[in-house]
Amino acid sequence: MPLPSPAEIGTALRDVDTPALLIDLDAFERNLRRMAEFATSAGVRLRPHSKTHKSPIIAAKQVSLGAVGVCCQKVSEAEVMVDGGIADVLIANEVAGSAKLDRLARLARRARIAVCVDDPDGVAELEAAATKADVQLQVLVEIDVGGRRCGVLPGAPAARLAERIARSPHLGFAGLQAYYGSAQHVREARDRQTRVAEAVAQVRETQALLAAVGLRAEVVTGAGTGTYENEAASGVFTELQAGSYIFMDADYARNMGGNGEPVDTFEHALFVYATVMSAPAPERLVVDAGLKAFAVDSGMPVPWRLPGGLYHRPSDEHGIIDATASSQRPKRGDKVLLVPGHCDPTVNLHDWYVGVRGLGGAEPSVECLWPVAARGALF
Amino acid sequence: MPLPSPAEIGTALRDVDTPALLIDLDAFERNLRRMAEFATSAGVRLRPHSKTHKSPIIAAKQVSLGAVGVCCQKVSEAEVMVDGGIADVLIANEVAGSAKLDRLARLARRARIAVCVDDPDGVAELEAAATKADVQLQVLVEIDVGGRRCGVLPGAPAARLAERIARSPHLGFAGLQAYYGSAQHVREARDRQTRVAEAVAQVRETQALLAAVGLRAEVVTGAGTGTYENEAASGVFTELQAGSYIFMDADYARNMGGNGEPVDTFEHALFVYATVMSAPAPERLVVDAGLKAFAVDSGMPVPWRLPGGLYHRPSDEHGIIDATASSQRPKRGDKVLLVPGHCDPTVNLHDWYVGVRGLGGAEPSVECLWPVAARGALF
């Protein structure tokens, strides 16, 4: 049971307790529809990453707009998604350790579960867990297309791993995981395109070697909010894993499009709502949201509709807004909206989404409260 | 109800699921005793900050060793502490907003509650909430002794605020909050000493002005793990608020003592336990603990007893250990201990403490499981 929520349905925005994780429902729904329409028009399947939102309620909205299911990063996230009614989950990650593998295999009794592997011992461990649970697991070979994190090398090593999967009685070779994580936040559109082109070449090379041993990667999955258009246009990717598009954090908003302007396909739809709890000086408006309300790994949160306002000097439970360069000057007791630097780990700090409609209007109020059901699902 | 725990009592360390938040109980207990003994010998009261551990179980251990109570940063933390049996809580922070103030005042029916203020309107709001709840609240004036966060200016402005408190029928002027946050991580011992000396001068100046209006700050509270010896020696501080000493993070371990060596009074007692989930190359051991398992605001986690091992490139659920310079080379499936860069926000990411005895020995096992009861208590 999560902590008490910072609001109730119908609460006026100004009365929402802080710090709170706010969704601008209008912008959020536009983001959902835009990506769904893009995937349809591009002829690729959308499997959004649920590590962004950790909510089966949001996952169900994505599925209702055409998504084939979701990605998860952890077995415990997948359990929350299946419990919430999502029937098709790809764990877009390796799973290590017998406790986790047993849970993964048992989950395949209740939903279609696929998982990634990048090591021969990993294949043997998956086969053992699937045998024990008497299930069939779909397995993708993760290839390292340039992200230099997990993944076997493309080409022959990947094909050998696929053969090993195909020979395992309780496993099915389902395809290739070719996610290029470090390409997502490359600022220039042309550079992102170049990197994905390299990834595509490596996928093609691997497909050729798979064909030579009589295998075929039915699924080629990857892409994020920074590069999804490139993968979709590649002709080799069949699934897009983008997740952050639903919320758009301050860091993604720094990516440039082909026109040299910031990409604006998706709108900021996630905010941390904070109160000015002390205002000793214009350069020092102290808000009640710090390192326990935001992740700061990808930069500081950005004050919303407070031009010139700068958030800095976060400590555990405080942050400072310098409003000297702003024409607006929030007072002690006022509440402010802040766009997180990085959505995914920020969401993971909160127990509740507070959904607000009409954020730009005169009297916005709370329309929904959704638990961040997989918050803290680390295993 | 928190998420399932990553272990059970008696689980062998090697079988604890990951990522897990581990306490080395032997080192932790030595840290508890060392600070308790220091406070006793220095003749100051110890009121450890519970924002570090967020656990009434740990708070009770501190009280049993002589602490007078705890500090909290948030009303919701204080509620958890009082629910867990802690009878004396200082909210070492300002509280803004009527919902929080009402909860604060109601809490004073069940425990001795003190709170800070730095604004005349804040005094009026506290008086209104205390009147409504028909309670008496202890109120400290927070003075800005150099940290440049919250706090009224020392001297006359602080004395005027104290008078306003003293005139409020439901409030009692309890003393001064004089915490110098930014001095805690100043590396050189002499520089920390200089800063605290400045704070002490400002406390003395304020005390003189209080005396002139017939008031006295019975409590002068402040200090953290970086400076507690300086405040204790000052003759003006009556209470120490240090919190991190129980766990000691990698950042605090970079502080230097008067001898030019790193301060080693307290031992690392908190770890994130992680599994090598992929090992494509010696420079790239991928562990299953990233931005959702650690806070990285004060630097990366440091591999423990893996000399030359370097943790870097954290992403949401992954981190890379470069072990090329280490004589040990963990393999895929091995588990490693990592010292968090910053304890407080790292603890806030986990639902359970896994307490292990005999960590250096042959067969360490799990002795206790404690919920991080106030995790996510943001309000």
Please, could you describe this protein's structure?
- 2 copies of one chain form a homodimer.
- By secondary structure, chain A is α/β, with parallel strands linked by helices.
- Chain A has 2 domains: 13-22 and 264-371, Lyase, Ornithine Decarboxylase, Chain A, domain 1 (Beta Barrel); 26-254, Alanine racemase (TIM Barrel, Alpha-Beta Barrel), CATH 3.20.20.10.
- Chain A has 9 helices and 17 strands.
- In chain A, strands 1, 10, 11, 12, 13, 14, 15, 16 and 17 form a 9-stranded mixed sheet that branches.
- In chain A, helix 6 (156-167) links the parallel strand 6 (137-142) and strand 7.
- At the A-B interface, strand 10 of A face strand 10 of B.
Helix content of chain A: 25-40%
Unreliable spans of chain A are: none
Number of domains of chain A: 2
**Biggest chain pair contact, residues each?**
A-B, 68 and 68 residues
Provide the CATH top-level class of the largest domain in chain A.
Answer: Alpha Beta
How much strand of chain A? 15-25%
- Quaternary structure type: homodimer
**CATH level 4 superfamily of the largest domain in chain A:** Alanine racemase
**Helix/strand/pairing category of chain A:** alpha/beta
How many strands of chain A?
17
Q: Averaged pLDDT of chain A, please?
A: 96
The CA-CA distance between the termini of chain A, in Å, is: 18 Å
| SSE series of chain A | EHEHEHEHEHEHEHEHEEEEEEEHEE
| Second CATH tier, the architecture of the largest domain in chain A | Alpha-Beta Barrel
What composes the largest sheet of chain A? 9 strands, mixed
Q: Which features does this protein show?
A:
homodimer; 379 residues; alpha/beta; Lyase, Ornithine Decarboxylase, Chain A, domain 1; TIM Barrel; 2 domains; nine-stranded mixed sheet; eight-stranded parallel sheet; 17 strands; globular
